[in-house]
Amino acid sequence: MIFEPTAGLDKKSTALTAARRAADPQLSARLDEIAERGFCIIKDAFSSEQVQLTKTQLAPWLQGKLMGRNNFEGESSERVYALLAKAPVIADMVTHPDVLAIVDALLSPHYLLSAALAINVHPGETSQPFHVDDNEGAMVLPKPRVALGVSAIWALDDFTTTNGATEVVPGSHLWADDREPQQHEIEQVIMPAGSALVFAGSLIHRGGANVSASSRLAVTPQYCMPWLRQIENMVLAVPPSMAQQYSDRVRELLGYSIVEPGFMGYVDGRHPRVLIPND
Ligand SMILES: O=C(O)CCC(=O)C(=O)O
Asked: Which of 75, 101, 136, 160 has the fewest CB atoms nearer than 10 Å to its CB?
């Protein structure tokens, strides 16, 4: 059985997506590409000024101290988590309208930001193990299944053939769990700084090996269904006093939200936004 990435959505969301597709052919083409190949690339999603500002805000955290602790994180890579507690410009990435238009179509309303981390792949780094992003926590739902998350990987340096560009396996979001990618099925994502790779959380991918002389910086915001546990514990990473600086949209994505209709996410019987000072 083949699952469309959107097969898990309710009728209202599906109708909304159909209306948005009709109004926005570019969005429609991106959604078609994700349905078929599992990913799309948004070029020039950030201007060179935004790329530079992001690098400037990340620089204090990229001092060679937060190196990966295993082969998955990458022992020659730096990983900076909890980015919304460290670099407020990341909010513009996390809420980028072209990315959220895709996430809106693929996940249920009130979806959450599951992770937002920077990955600086240094020269000498080897390929990461292949993985999908939407199966954390001993997932018991085998593939093929609907995507439970959507991930973006934003290039802050040009992704080249040698510096550790992300590698994807087109179509693998529709595979069963036991299918292993063969060499000829792997595609490098070559894209200029400021571009965003957006993909179904069920797509097989990995960070590539960096055989160049320069590092490759990326930020990966990942979104998940509202009823899944976030990979990063976002409301502890960004407590109410810090959430105060952000828009309602960012706060909602962090988890200062409830899943409506219903009450998943309440705190002491009330909407969690009441904990944000001066709200
Ligand atoms: O750094 C990359 O290109 C990919 C990283 C990744 O997929 C991950 O850590 O989940």
From this structure: 75
Choose the residue to mutate in 205, 215, 224, 231 for probing ligand 1, maximizing ligand atoms within 8 Å of C-beta.
205
The 10 Å Cβ neighbour count of residue 97 is 10
- Residue 56 burial (10 A CB sphere; 0-12, 13-18, 19+): exposed
CA proximity to 152, closest of 98, 105, 231? 98
Contact 204, 144 (CB under 8 A): no
Rounded Cα gap, residues 123 and 62, in angstroms: 15
- Total number of domains constituting the chain: 2
At 106-164, the pLDDT tens digits run 999 999 999 999 999 999 999 999 999 998 777 788 999 999 999 999 999 999 999 99
Our measurement of the distance from residue 93's CA atom to the centroid of its chain's CA atoms, rounded to an integer in Å, reads 10
Separation of 216 CA from ligand 1 center, angstroms? 12
The verdict on residue 2 lying in a domain is no
My answer on whether 153 and 201 are in the same domain is: yes
Q: Is residue 211 part of a domain?
A: yes
- The percent of residues in the chain predicted with pLDDT above 90, rounded, is 89
Give the model's pLDDT for residue 4: 57
Ligand 1 atom index nearest CA of 218: 1
What does DSSP say about strands 167-168 and 149-155: parallel, antiparallel, or unpaired?
A: unpaired
Using CA atoms, how far apart are residues 247 and 264, in angstroms rounded to an integer?
21
Task: Assess whether 43 and 127 both reside in one domain.
Answer: yes
Atom number of ligand 1 nearest to Cα 121? 1
The whole domain housing 217 covers 11-232
| Nearest CA, atom 7, ligand 1 | 206
- Which among 120, 206, 216, 231 is the best mutation to test ligand 1's pocket, defined by most ligand atoms within 8 Å of the CB? 206
